[in-house]
Each structure stands twice: as C-alpha cells, then as structure tokens.
C-alpha cells in the first residue's frame, strides 16, 4: 500500500490504530490512551547494544549496535515498564517525518545493524510514510518493529514490505494479569492475532551467516514476572504449538521492580534463579530450540538508556 500524507491524516482524524480504538481526532490536538497527538515525538535515536545478539550483534568490541529510535507514548503502559518516563509522555521531542528519515539514514551511516523502531504503534502511518521515503533515498539495512504486541492487524498491514523483522512481546496469557498490569483484558487475543500477521509478513527467519544478524523474521520476547511461572508456561506452549521452531523466542529474566510499581506488592521483587531455571527447563521439555536465554544476574544491569534527546 502506498502511504501518503493524506493517508496519515485520515488515520489521525479518528484514531483506531490500536486495540484501544479511542476514535479521537489527533490532528485536532486530542489525545487518547497513548497520550499523543498526530505530531511525532521521540526521546532518543542512537546505537543500542543491549538487544538480543541477532539484533544488536554479538557482545564485544565489534558489536555494531542496533539503530534504535525510542518513540514517546505507549498504548499499553504496563505498571512495571522500564521505559516509564517515555511511555507516559514525560520525555520527548517533536520531530518531522523528514527529520525522522534523516535519522534513519544517519544511523545507517554510523554502521547500525538495523533500524529499530521502539513502541511506534500509535505512529504507524507516519512511520510507514517515512520508511517509504527513506528506502527510496538509500536506506538498505533491515527495519525492526519493536512492539508490546498489543496491535491491530489492519494497522500492521500498513507496514508490509517496509518492516523486515518483527520483535514483539507476548507478555501474558491470563486476562486477569493483562488487566491488572496493562489495563488490557483483551491483550492475549489481540497479541495472538498480531503475531499471526507479523509471521505472515516476514517469516521464515533468515540470518546473515557471517555476522549472525537476523535479516528477516520474527523474534518474540517474553519477560517473566515474579510468581507467574504458570502463565509463562502457557505463553511458551502457545508459541511453540503455533509456530514450532519457525520463530525465535527470547525468554527474559531481567524484570526489575521500579519505584512507580511499589503498590503492586506481589511483583515488587526480582525473578529468582530457581524460577527462571524452571521456565528454561520447561521450554526445553516441550521442544523449543530457537531461544535466547539470559545469564543469572541480568537484572543487576541497567537496560534503560538515558532519554535526553540524543540523536534527534
């Protein structure tokens, strides 16, 4: 589908881009759940070295880094979000579509392994238009769409042919958990439909044999929550039953309790080694082969970059 500014404006006039379906006029300055008008806002654009090795590159001196753009606002806003400051719109700088295109090309010139679009759900039409233009002006590296998974299939279809790698979360199976922590009782239903569309667009997985970098495909992330091993097993079983080993799964132990989530006492702690080992053993037992796992102590590291407008 060819995207024009007219297309973008039409989507923004009655915004139903995500499952929230707020229906508000963002071109008129109204804001829905994501907290954003039609104007693009971002908080950081820089090489990022803390994604999975197939996205950022193998850790070490020659790691190219992922050319990551963190967009302001979020349509999910989980209570435990590590990027809380930008998810809630606290940090951000307005940028034009033209400037965003320049940023993509600048990151490519710096040697980025890919362009990594973080939490861009509420800006999909603007992103699609910008990617069209950037590709016609020399953008050749893969494009990664890095998402919570809470997406509308019709919106994702705007990205077909423009995105090479989908990097969604599948956070929960339980509607009780998705309601409590993400205010989204229909999360699993919507995320599953979104993953099916992502899979249709970009799979099977293709790697660059020399570098080990993913060139095309889908990598699904699942972050373990304290005390929720049962739900994690349901998520992993669903992924394996649905996609087998045709996708990659990142099983993450880096959950970090943050001050703004203190009222949720049941998740105000880190994942234990035993909890994580049980989930990894389960993944092996059911036949998951293409998985990234994290070393013990990962939660001691900080994966939260400084959101001060770098690269914008």
Q: What can you see in these coordinates?
A:
The relative contact order is 0.14. α4 (97-109) packs across α5 (124-136) and α9 runs parallel beside α10. By secondary structure, the chain is an alpha/beta fold. The protein contains ten helices and ten strands. The protein is 32% helix and 16% strand. It is globular, with a radius of gyration of 18 Å.
Give, in order, the helices and strands.
HEHEHEHEHEHEHHEEHEHE
Tally the beta strands. Answer: 10
Q: Judging from the principal axes of the Cα atoms, what is the shape?
A: globular
| Low-confidence segments | none
How large is the count of helical segments?
A: 10
State the major sheet: 10 strands, mixed
Strand content: 15-25%
What distance separates the N and C termini? 28 Å
Structural class: alpha/beta
Return Rg in Å: 18 Å
Mean pLDDT rating: 94
How helical, in percent, are the residues?
Answer: 25-40%
